[in-house]
Amino acid sequence: MAEILEIGLVKSAITAPADPFFMREQESSILVNAAYAEGLYRIEENEYLTVVFHFHQAEGYRLKGPRYDDEVTGVFASRSPRRPGTVGVTTVRLLERKGNELRVKGLDAIDGTPVLDIKPYTPSLDETEQGQVKQDREIQSPRQEIVRAIRRHDLRSLLLGAGSIHGHFCPGLALGVIAGAYGMQEFGLTNDGMEELLAVIEINNCFCDGIQYVTGCTIGNNALIYRDYGKTAVTLCRRDGRELRLAVKSDYREKLNQLVPEFAPLFQKVVTERKGDESDRTEFKKAAAKASFRLLEMPREDIMTAAAVRITIPEYAPIRESIVCENCRESVMGSKIVEHHGKKLCRACTTDRYGELNGEGIENKP
Ligand SMILES: [Zn+2]
Ligand SMILES: [Zn+2]
């Protein structure tokens, strides 16, 4: 085999193997041997570098075993440091170059690790292909990241994802995430949004977004059925007859107040009374986010009940023909057309009553 040279060493505050996600957050340095320093010419023009290094402290390897998330894979299907080739490859951010020292962020190699090679990370060569593969996988299975997180019970990732549609972090959102993840774990994880899995939700608030994100039952795919009870509860149903109702316990707020005492008074001031200045609102957001992530650590059975139930669920959403309103000329779902003096009109063009789902629940208008 060809001889592999050490071109430098890692200098890091981390001296023993640690959690890879923690290590990826840290800054460290690569000290390049003086003999190779000329090879760093213009390296600072690159934002990212791919670093090849030697896992010098890894002892032995297992060809198959659990990964960090408990999934069992072969060593070549994992990023385990214990590998037959003892070589690690990581893309890092280059923070600065000082002579033959490179300050980097994201290098998951401990202090003293021999560095074998450094190359600029080149999006056109490295990323497009990776990005394409990822995209192809996502087209096949758009919810795979969510499903993975549910499987490894990674409620934090799920809450972060739910926040991306909800806009903020709050206890209600966290409760929806907890209920959704628990239900999906009980019910099998898949949902392709074709109404095999339904979520019958009993309230329209923050809870609802946690449910929609984690279960994939949404108002858009007709798998989110809204029952206007005003209770923080959801029933997950599969068409094969399995049904599970998760309901938040009435004393959950007391438990929340013990966890994050500053939340309730700020909620009262900022949300209930709609008073509170800019700084109150900032503090409230902080407290709400803190409360939502703390909730994830509580045992599910302490905050919500789970019970097998029987409820009536709707049939698959019907496909109705569209009819053009004779007044506004817009296309309307056929069943919503009203006859008015012999004309086929939409409800917006008549004074006919319509239902509106708003902050009150379902309201009949006008
Ligand atoms: Zn919210
Ligand atoms: Zn109309």
Brief synopsis:
The protein has ten helices and 19 strands. The chain is α+β, with helices and mostly antiparallel strands. α4 crosses α6.
Outline the fold blueprint:
Layout lengths: L7 E4 L8 H5 L2 E6 L15 E7 L9 E3 L5 E3 L12 E12 L2 E5 L8 E7 L2 H18 L3 H8 L3 H12 L4 H17 L9 E5 L4 H10 L8 E3 L6 E6 L4 E6 L3 H8 L3 H10 L5 H18 L4 H4 E5 L13 E3 L6 E3 L4 E3 L2 E3 L8 E5 L2 E5 L1
Parallel strand pairs: 9-10
Antiparallel strand pairs: 1-2, 1-8, 2-7, 3-6, 3-8, 4-5, 6-7, 9-11, 11-12, 12-13, 14-15, 16-17, 18-19
Helix pairs in contact: 4-5, 4-6, 5-6, 5-9, 8-9
The chain binds zinc ion (2 copies).
The site of one zinc ion has 6 residues, from helix 5.
**CATH architecture field of the largest domain:** 2-Layer Sandwich
Largest β sheet strand count, sense and barrel closure: 6 strands, antiparallel, barrel
| Distance between the first and last residues' Cα | 82 Å
Quote the beta fraction.
Answer: 25-35%
The low-confidence parts are none
Summarize the structure in words.
By secondary structure, the chain is α+β, with helices and mostly antiparallel strands. The chain has 3 domains: 8-126, Elongation Factor Tu (Ef-tu), domain 3 (Beta Barrel); 147-308, 60s Ribosomal Protein L30, Chain: A; 322-365, no CATH class. It contains 10 helices and 19 strands. It has helices spanning 20-24, 123-140, 144-151, 155-166, 171-187, 206-215, 252-259, 263-272, 278-295, 300-303, and strands at residues 8-11, 27-32, 48-54, 64-66, 72-74, 87-98, 101-105, 114-120, 197-201, 224-226, 233-238, 243-248, 304-308, 322-324, 331-333, 338-340, 343-345, 354-358, 361-365. The strands form 6 sheets. Strands 1-2-7-6-3-8 form a 6-stranded antiparallel barrel. The chain has a 5-stranded mixed beta sheet with strand order 10-9-11-12-13. Helix 4 (155-166) crosses helix 5 (171-187). It is elongated. The termini are far apart. The mean pLDDT is 90. It binds zinc ion (2 copies). One zinc ion binds next to loops. The site of one zinc ion has 6 residues, from helix 5.
